[in-house]
Design a protein that fits this description.
Length: about 120
């Protein structure tokens, strides 16, 4: 059973791996992602962890924050893990460059919200 008390930890995992993916990509290009095996594996792993952490959030938390596309994030993880043979690096690059910067402030706000609720 998923516990509300663990939502903060899951959000922190999401934030950590959003930041890692962006650090890995800093100063690099889509071509680097396509040609550097270690970079590619690191980027995909970050996407997997973000998706898994979103999946592990309580239903109550996700329902109380409907402005975040939780199901899209979770489906992305499923593609990374189960459809590994069809991962397209331009999509991974787009997520890191565009989706993660938009998602990051929401995750930061959710963590802050949970910290304030527990005071």
């Amino acid at each position: 059973m998923r516990e509300p008390i663990r939502d903060k930890g899951r959000l922190e995992h999401m934030l950590e791996h959003i930041d890692r993916a962006q650090q890995f990509a800093a100063g690099r290009s889509l071509e680097d992602l396509e040609n550097d095996t270690m970079f590619r594996y690191a980027a995909v792993k970050c996407l997997e962890i973000v998706g898994e952490a979103a999946y592990m959030l309580t239903l109550e938390f996700k329902e109380s924050h409907p402005d975040t596309p939780w199901q899209v994030i979770i489906k992305m993880r499923h593609v990374m893990v189960h459809g590994y043979y069809s991962i397209q690096m331009p999509i991974v690059w787009d997520i890191i460059q565009n989706d993660f910067p938009a998602l990051r402030p929401k995750i930061v706000a959710y963590i802050s919200e949970l910290e304030n609720n527990n005071e």
